[in-house]
Amino acid sequence: MDSQLKRGIIDICVLCALKKEDSYGYRIIKDLSPHIEITESTLYPILKRLEGSGCVRTYKVEHNGRLRKYYSITDTGTEKITEFSKEWESVEKAYNYIKGVCEDE
């Protein structure tokens, strides 16, 4: 899969995980793992990039005597999910065309 397309899909998956509820890194990985392959070394740069673009915000909560960093989706992040969903329709049409043509051979 094209790395840019894959990156965009993983970004949206992370945002969708946060749309369900605020979460922290390990929990996001656990939530997404049944659906996509993701590691800490992949997730944290994505979260940093999403925070930099205003799609998520962070806050810290004490947990077992340590501060845990939580991520929360913003309105900008929610808009990004909506835009992706609209664009995905055209990607799906192209995929169906490619699949149809290549399977007919």
Provide an overview of this structure.
This is PadR family transcriptional regulator. The chain is of the alpha+beta class and 105 residues long. A two-stranded antiparallel sheet has the order 1-2. A hairpin with a 2-residue loop joins strand 1 and strand 2. The longest helix has 30 residues. It is elongated and about 60 Å long. The mean pLDDT is 91.
Query: Which range does the strand content fall in?
Result: 15-25%
Strand order of the largest sheet: 1-2
- What string gives the helices and strands in order? HHHEEH
Which blocks of ≥5 consecutive residues have pLDDT under 50? none
Q: State the total count of DSSP E strands.
A: 2
Q: Roughly how many Å is the radius of gyration?
A: 16 Å
Q: Major sheet, described briefly?
A: 2 strands, antiparallel
Number of H/I helices: 4
What structural class should be given to the helix and strand makeup?
alpha+beta
Gap from first CA to last CA? 22 Å
